[in-house]
Amino acid sequence: MALMRVSSPHAHGSYSTGMVMRQVLLATVPGVFVLTLFFGFGTLVNVAWACLVGIALESLALFLRGRSLTFYLKDCSALVTCVLLGIALPPYAPWWLIAVGVAAAVLMAKQLYGGLGYNPFNPAMVGYVVLLISFPVQMTAWAPPRGLADVPNLWEALQACFLPAQFDGVTMATPLDILRQNQGLLMEDLWAQTPQFGRWAGIGWEWVNLAFLAGGLWLLYRRIFTWHAPVAMLGSLALMSALFYAGGSSSSGGSPLFHLLSGATMFGAFFIITDPVSSAVSVRGRLVFGALIGVLVYLIRVWGNYPDAVAFAVLIANFAAPFIDHYTQPRVYGHGKSGGTG
């Protein structure tokens, strides 16, 4: 009897790359909605413009490489990169800043390495760090949340992006930046004197993080990724902030709840570090990878030069991902730890 000659692998997952990417895009909707509710239409304009520029640059790169545009564009990986970068950028960023960041993410961090599956670093975070180092003034110009200032409407958001010279916007320091620059005030006094602080963290920021948490939990429910890296990151960040909390003293680095609900914590935990290409792949490796990022986020936030450190922590961990995987590979059945047979 003749046997079928079919090469491995014989098992196929139920999720294609395109489906996974579309699930991720859908999961960002709650976070983008809350960002828009508290900070206005700037994030929506960021995302829309980033997607237009990103698809154009991705198409150009694929054309120059002689690759099929239809086949590679339909996986939605470029859209995910642009959406994540657009969310991470300050609302009402100028059009050229967004375009430079998208070019760094799509061309430098993705296509120059060979496209999806070959990039060693998270493309969205590469674009963000390039902008943060090159244009620190524009990248720290965060708009105040609703309740502390007037939130720009859609027309004003478009003006801020494409006609920045005609838009006179208001910017305000984020709660993470205020805490890092605290010069002797007790936490209770700092909280009372700073209008940006809310119940647990910053006004608006706590709800933004809860919205991204909801989207991340939905992705976990859909089994788009495993729980290991997000839980390890959030757990190590909470542990570090608990160890160095120092009560309400002026030297406090902030409570665990403050750090968990501030900045890009939940966004990073569920939408950035779970990138299957640039993160660790073994189960133990994901735990180490996530824990390393959580520790780095706290260290940079409290003692570094940048108030929010998710992007830097992720890129440093991307460097270490191959090393982590090498030392956390599961033991082959029938073999001892030394590599010999059991």
Task: Describe the protein in words.
There is one protein chain. With 342 residues, the protein is mainly α. It folds into two domains: 156 residues, no CATH class; 153 residues, no CATH class. The protein contains 17 helices and no strands. The relative contact order is 0.11.
Helix content: 55-70%
Distance between the termini: 37 Å
The tally of structural domains comes to: 2
Percentage beta strand: under 5%
Descriptors:
342 residues, mainly alpha, 2 domains, 17 helices, 0% strand, disordered N terminus
Question: Could you give a short description of this structure?
Answer:
By secondary structure, the protein is mainly alpha-helical. 58% of the residues lie in helices and 0% in strands.
Helix and strand arrangement:
Elements: H1 17-27, H2 29-39, H3 42-64, H4 69-73, H5 77-88, H6 95-108, H7 123-134, H8 136-139, H9 154-162, H10 175-180, H11 187-193, H12 205-221, H13 228-243, H14 256-260, H15 265-272, H16 283-303, H17 310-327
Helix pairs in contact: 1-5, 1-12, 2-12, 3-5, 3-6, 5-6, 5-7, 6-7, 7-17, 12-15, 13-15, 13-16, 16-17
